């Protein structure tokens, strides 16, 4: 397994740290994450009702997904390596009144510390920001209990994805800051499914996430050409 100290891009951590104060500004660069959060939570609950479940949110950032999971009744642990983002996440709990256990730790390190501890692991919009996504997938698989679920979301790698997720979202529509994504790090669904299989996970569901620029709305379903979510299960 990749050394957890090495499996982090310092430039990526610095980028998110610089934006940390904006995590909960729904009109900021993080607006897309706020907009898609209900869809992500619904996708997870299609596979596992969250109430009472022990859930780990890998790459939790400022806690948008973590708080959504907690709001639906899960007992949530959120981990990240961006210290400033975690501070914002912890501060926001004072406003929301929710309970989330936030920790500054690499997923690989936590996998060694607490294997099989969680009913579900989420790793959304994170794999495309690390040097070794396969190492993260392996750690997520180790952290979930037999019979538990692991959920990933990331960006496909093809010309359409580059046109829409990089040129369109960052340069034309301005949905994301320029330089948010590095196209070479995008991951094809077949590649992610292979990483999951190698890590002992069974792929259950693949679905696309689509943005309508005219209506400014998102929806799940259809092709996985650009953004997609993958639900995997660890065999009993």
TrEMBL record:
Its EC number is 2.1.1.222, 2.1.1.64. Pathway: Cofactor biosynthesis; ubiquinone biosynthesis. Pfam families: Methyltransf_23 (PF13489). S-adenosyl-L-methionine binds at residues 40, 59, 80, 124. InterPro entries: SAM-dependent_MTases_sf, UbiG_MeTrfase. Keywords: Methyltransferase, S-adenosyl-L-methionine, Transferase, Ubiquinone biosynthesis. The keyword Transcription regulation does not apply. One of its GO terms (biological process) is methylation. Gene3D superfamilies: Vaccinia Virus protein VP39. GO terms for molecular function: 2-polyprenyl-6-hydroxyphenol methylase activity; 3-demethylubiquinol 3-O-methyltransferase activity. It catalyses: a 3-demethylubiquinol + S-adenosyl-L-methionine = a ubiquinol + S-adenosyl-L-homocysteine + H(+); a 3-(all-trans-polyprenyl)benzene-1,2-diol + S-adenosyl-L-methionine = a 2-methoxy-6-(all-trans-polyprenyl)phenol + S-adenosyl-L-homocysteine + H(+). Belongs to the methyltransferase superfamily. UbiG/COQ3 family. O-methyltransferase that catalyzes the 2 O-methylation steps in the ubiquinone biosynthetic pathway. This is Ubiquinone biosynthesis O-methyltransferase. The gene is ubiG.
